[in-house]
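Handover notes (outgoing to incoming on-call)

Open items:
1. Leucine rich repeats-containing protein: sequence verified, structure written out, both below. Nothing else pending on this one.
2. Nothing else urgent.
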Amino acid sequence: MIYFSKLKLQIIVVPDWIKTIQKEAYKGFVSLEVIKLSKCTQKIEESAFSGCGKLNEMTIPGEVSQIAKCTFKGCKRLRKIDFEGVLTSIDESAFSGCEQLFEMIIPKGVTKIKKDTFKGCKNLRRVILPDSITIIEKGAFSGCENLEILDIPDSIDQ
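Leucine rich repeats-containing protein structure tokens:
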């Protein structure tokens, strides 16, 4: 077993042999600024990066199909997320409290924006939704006080 100091670690490069980032794997790593996931990463579990207050950008590899509940919750400096593949699900509170998140382009394949997904993203100004979206749950954008553009497709039922 390898142990890391949650308080000091700044950069993590995930090797190819790790396919799953387990639940709460890096939760509370307060100094973590950079995480480079392998293109072989297939799954990111609940709260994997929650509370990584200095994390500022992230690329989600093409094999990952779901952003689990609370994955990036409380990543206050997170400004940018790039998706290389096709997501099918973004779970509740996935980006809650990402205060510096400025823009979100939801990839094609996601069908629902769940409750509290972007709650408290104070600087979120622009959200582009794909035609695959059919439902935006109550509270999905609560506390997004600077939201200027929410591009809602005709496919929305609720």
